[in-house]
Structure formats: C-alpha cells, structure tokens
Write a structure and sequence with these properties.
By secondary structure, the chain is α/β, with parallel strands linked by helices. 40% of the residues lie in helices and 16% in strands.
Length: 289
C-alpha cells in the first residue's frame, strides 16, 4: 500500500532534532523524499544514520542552513530541486527559545535575533518554497511552526510570544495570496512538547504532564502527525488554519478557579460546591455535593 506522501518531496527546517526529526522520519515512512535543513551538522548526521538504518537513506538529504540567512534557505530549496526534481511541501519548523526576561530588560539585539529565526526564517521558507511550487505548477503545502504562545499573552517570554503571533498572521496572509496557485499554507501551534528545546529552557521543575489537562506530555510524534495531515491530500480544503496541538492547554485557559482554590490546575477536583453562574440577570445557583 502506497504511503500518503508517495512521490512527494518535502523540505523540513530544524529537522535534525525534536519535532522536526520526528516529522522527517514520519514523512519518510509515508513515502516522501525529504531534505533536512538544520544548523546542527551533528544532528543532521544522526538523522541520516537513522534513515539509512530504516532503509530510507536514498530518500533523504541534509543541508547545513541558518534559516535567518536567505542564501541558506534558497540553497536548501535548490538542493531539493536538484536532487529530487520538485518540491511539494515545506515545513518551516526551525526555532529557538529566543530572548527571555522582563520587557524592560530585553535587549534589542536579542529581540532582533528572536525575530530573525522565528519570523524571518518562516518568511524565507514561504518565499522560496512558494516560488518553487509556483514554477512547477502543481500546487503544494507550506506548514509553519507557530505556538500556543502566539494565541494569547503570558504563555511564554514576550519576544517568543510576539514572534509566534507574527507567524500565525503571516500564515493567514500567505494562504490568501497563494490559494490561486493551489498552495495551502497552514501553521501548527504546539503546546508543551517534550523536545531538547524544552529541556534546555526548563526552569519550573513541573513535569510536562502537569501542564495541560491531557495526562501525558506532548511528543514530537504528535506534531509529526499533524504535519502529515497538513502535508497530505487529506487537508486539500484546509488553508490559513492554525492547528492547535496542545493536550487541551488553551481550552483550559488560565484555570483561575483552580488557582484561587489552591489546587494544581489539572488534578481531579475534590467534592464540594458546584453550580451555575447565569450572570448578573439571575442569582448564582450553588449546590453542595
């Protein structure tokens, strides 16, 4: 049985580790030919070795690339065209934690670096990926990694949250522009995903499974599954979307009720008061269980 990406060619930035690596391996399993673009040569070599052991070595190439540099992104696209003859999917996934700390202490150069990787890198992937797809004339899929941090304030440092919000709107604008060429542009908004990047930035000591309603932490494979859907024909009528993959984190909101009661946000509630608040037009109905 043919895979869902049989005969397709994909470029995955940040594909040497974490969500990107999981997506590369999933795309290969589904029959795609893949170019990994990453700044880590060692990570790229590891992915090449994994693919070779799984029998996919002939369908994988690696390009050392800094996604903030246009020549590097253009070169990765050119490698896909040169080696595989076409480009059907670009997954702009490369990222960094970027600047952190209070806004009044954030250095402008750290802010600019964050946006260079997280926003300029996506813009360049969209620009050169779309150019190749338009010239080929067969349409395609562009997927960008955003974040739940781009959907609201307070979920991540201000520079990171602002950059991811920009990625979401860039996705929507590009989707409108490129629809006439049958190029779909969507983004994935991961929540807490257990990746090397998360481990580097971990400071709270709170286990990942405690940070959202779903009782298990997110994995790279969870994002890879979403990317596969957006890369395949299953999503042929989906463009301009921000697909949330977060174990219910954004659905739960700030969990103010639990915090006010001194509870861990997603632990089972003890028996106690319950009821319904119908607003100012009616008294609050409360019962004791």
């Amino acid at each position: 049985m043919a895979g869902r990406l049989e005969s397709r060619v994909a470029l995955v930035t940040g594909g040497a580790s974490g969500m990107g690596r999981a997506t590369v391996l999933r795309f290969l399993e589904e029959g795609a030919r893949v170019v990994v673009a990453d700044l880590s040569v060692a990570g790229g070599e590891e992915v090449l070795a994994l693919a070779a052991r799984a029998g996919y070595g002939e369908r994988l190439r690696f390009a050392e690339a800094d996604v903030a540099e246009e020549a590097d992104v253009e070169g990765a696209v050119a490698l896909a065209l040169r080696e595989f003859g076409r480009l059907d999917c670009v997954f702009n996934n490369a990222g960094v934690g970027g600047a952190y700390g209070p806004v009044v202490r954030t250095r402008v150069e750290d802010w600019d670096y964050t946006f260079a990787v997280l926003v300029r890198g996506v813009f360049l992937g969209v620009k050169h990926g779309a150019r190749a797809m338009v010239e080929h004339g067969g349409g395609g899929s562009i997927i960008n990694t955003a974040s739940v941090a781009g959907l609201s304030g307070g979920d991540a440092p201000i520079a990171y949250s602002s950059a991811k919000a920009a990625v979401i709107n860039l996705t929507r604008a590009a989707a409108v522009e490129l629809a006439a060429h049958r190029i779909r542009v969507n983004c994935i908004c991961p929540g807490v995903i257990c990746t090397p990047l998360l481990e580097q930035g971990k400071a709270s000591g709170v286990p990942a499974e405690r940070l959202q309603p779903w009782p298990e932490g997110g994995r790279g494979d969870d994002v890879a599954g979403a990317a596969l859907y957006l890369a395949s024909d299953d999503s042929r009528f989906v463009t301009g979307a921000a697909l949330v993959v977060d174990g219910g984190l954004t659905a739960a909101g700030p969990c103010l009720d639990a915090r006010l009661r001194g509870l861990a946000p997603f632990e089972p509630r003890p028996a106690g008061s319950a009821g319904v608040d119908r607003g100012s037009a009616a008294p609050r109905a409360v019962r004791q269980d």
